[in-house]
Amino acid sequence: MQGAALSALRLPFGFAAGGEYHRRRHCRSSGGFGVRMALREDGPSLAIVGVTGAVGQEFLGVISDRDFPYRSIRMLASKRSAGRRLTFEGNEYVIEELKEESFDGVDVALFSAGGSISKAFGPAAVARGCVVVDNSSAFRMDPEVPLVIPEVNPEAMAHIKVGSGKGGLIANPNCSTIICLMAATPLHRQAKVKRMVVSTYQAASGAGAAAMEELELQTREVLDGRPPTCNIFKQQYAFNLFSHNAPVQPNGYNEEEMKLVKETRKIWNDEEVKVTATCIRVPVMRAHAESVNLQFEKPLDEDTAREILRGAPGVVVIDDRASNHFPTPLEVSNKDDVAVGRVRQDISQEGNHGLDIFVCGDQIRKGAALNAIQIAERLL
């Protein structure tokens, strides 16, 4: 396998020599990577926490793609990264070490630096009047913190606004939950889901850029007949799959599976819905896939379900039985929409009370950075 082929599946951005931020996915119509002629004075001041990480870099990509208005951006990371220079949209920035005072004068902070960093600095940012959108699991199950997918439950954060003089904290759900509920919620609104069984097939991107690099390295090593390097995971990842690497709880479910259970109930505001999940790590570079079985309170036939999904924001239907063409992780990589297919009646349930669907979504995009930016957009 050639390096160029593997590189095409890697993160579509990075730091070039000299610290210039660039992406390989596409150039904007201006002929370059989106040089802004002028910053928006009517926009909020932003801070990106964890800007050197995979999701932190994708924050910048989504901001550029969606022309998110801002009057300034503060690039924040660990002490190790402080002092590096980064060029974004024609302006050069110096990455600053994250400190509590980093949020002075900041309207919106996008966090993706891990739960411990969020717990340490999120409340400090809020105390300074900043609205924090946090991508970690630190606050997701806090009853005082809205857990939001903008297409699903925007009303949960209706009380938070930028410029109100008060800070606020909003949690970004887990990537597998976002991808699942983007497809399941429109059907839930129509017929009410009583029980949901989810099996996930999760890409390396969910474990960060280092895991993506290790999958590429292992692929080369295995094809060359060498033993694979196993630094991120404890076992061979290339040409293999295994139970998700999240810690296993006393009930036998791992943390990733329990996130799907708990977060679905909170987002749907329904403690009675039954959810069970099995999460698997598969050797895919980017974008997660999920098989979802739904049991409804009211009948819902598959043709009606397809029409509902075709009209759902952020969802695209790929469901061509004749050519056996359905969603794949590769098709949705670097895409904003979640793809749904394999829409079919569950033959084990009577009276059109069950459906099976197959869902694919970009874990870094909609599963993380895009969802956070969409939250920020609704705050303005």
Written account of the structure:
The chain has 380 residues and is an alpha/beta fold. The protein folds into 2 domains: 3-138, Rossmann fold (3-Layer(aba) Sandwich), CATH 3.40.50; 177-363, 2-Layer Sandwich (Dihydrodipicolinate Reductase, domain 2), CATH 3.30.360.10. 27% of the residues lie in helices and 23% in strands. It is built from 9 helices and 17 strands. The strands form 4 sheets. It has a 7-stranded mixed beta sheet. It has a 6-stranded parallel beta sheet with strand order 7-4-3-8-9-10, with helices on both faces. Helix 2 packs across helix 9 (365-379) and helix 4 (175-191) packs across helix 6 (255-268). The longest helix has 17 residues, at 175-191. The termini are far apart. The relative contact order is 0.14. Residues 1-33 have low confidence and may be disordered.
- In the CATH hierarchy, the third-tier topology of the largest domain is known as Dihydrodipicolinate Reductase, domain 2
Give the second-level CATH assignment, the architecture of the largest domain: 2-Layer Sandwich
Q: Helix/strand-derived class?
A: alpha/beta
Query: Distance between the terminal alpha carbons, to the nearest Å?
Result: 47 Å
What's the β-strand tally? 17
How would you write the strand order of the largest sheet? 12-13-11-14-17-16-15
Mean pLDDT across residues = 91
What's the number of helices? Answer: 9
Tell me the strand percentage band: 15-25%
Counted up, domains total 2
Radius of gyration: 21 Å
Largest sheet: 7 strands, mixed
Any idea what the CATH superfamily of the largest domain is called? Answer: Dihydrodipicolinate Reductase, domain 2
CATH class of the largest domain equals Alpha Beta
* Run of helices and strands: HEEEHEEEEEHEEHEHEHEEHEHEEH
Q: Give the assembly state of these chains.
A: single chain
Overall form: globular
Work out the helicity level.
25-40%
Question: What are the segments in which pLDDT stays under 50 over at least 5 consecutive residues?
Answer: 1-33
